[in-house]
Amino acid sequence: MSKINSWITAFRLRTLPLSLSCISMGAFLAYFRGHFDFLIFVFSFLTTISLQILSNLANDYGDTVFGADNNSRKGPDRMVQLGLITISQMKRMIIVFIILSLIFGILLLYFSHLNFSGFLIFLTLGILAIIAAVNYTIGMKKPYGYKGFGDISVFVFFGLVAVLGVYFLYAKSFDWQLLLPASTCGFFATAVLNINNMRDIDSDKLAGKKSIPVRIGIKRALTYHFLLLFGGILLSLVFVLLNYKSPFQLIFLLSLPLFIKNYLSVKNSKTPEMMDPFLKQMAISTLIFVLLFGAGTIF
Predict the structure, then answer these.
(1) Domain carrying residue 139
(2) What is the pLDDT of residue 145?
(3) What is the pLDDT of residues 250-264, one digit of tens each?
(4) For 146-162, what is each residue's pLDDT tens digit?
(5) Which of 108, 240, 249, 268 could form a disulfide with 43 if both were Cys (CB 3.0 to 4.6 A apart)?
């Protein structure tokens, strides 16, 4: 594998639809309420892509260093583990994406025309997002991802911060009803992590990584997965009913079979490694859901 292909693999581009779904939800909601700005749209995308790749690189590095990526791991290849990218090279690339995340994030705030206090609040949130992206698997002696807090972090940053934060940058206001679709995105993003953790349950146990599936077992993790998927859909349905204007707003329900398929496919996987394709399927299903939800709100 060439060095360029190794880096592309390390970037894990298949994870981008999920993160872009969340900020798209914020943009759709802002447009629905009469607010939109093209530059905010562009720089929110660039910031999100940088943060997601940063998180993926940190995960590649951290899971190798802390032992979660070992010979018993069932998922796709990790470049540091295979020796295709050295630890020092990975560290340098992590620094590059920290800098890119900061640059794009500051430009996003600049074009959002926030007042000084708003700028400081969102700058703090941005720095916390960078810290969360890096510290999931590279923190202290045992990063928070190894203590079972990854689900909470994903829900907060992919759901509440991404959706509500982006909405606020457009609208300069907040509506409590927006917690419903924001939580939907948080639930779906957490479901992707849950599939990842169910797939890696054996290697995580050996590495001492206390993910939710390791803590509660596969059977309960499947129940948890069911609640994340269909709880997320229910929350968005409640939002639409509270803001009902036309039947077209319910078009997002056309994506329901995708989530049913995801749940049944994960449930019927006979071995952990068989769950791997459903990570990508869940991420794409989330993107389709958000696009349909957005179409229903703005047309």
Answers:
(1) 3-298
(2) 66
(3) 999 999 999 999 999
(4) 777 889 989 999 999 99
(5) 108
pLDDT tens-place string over residues 11-24: 988 889 999 999 99
Tracing tokens 């981008």 back to the chain, one arrives at 16
Percentage of the chain exceeding pLDDT 90:
72
Instruction: Provide the number of structural domains found in the chain.
Output: 1
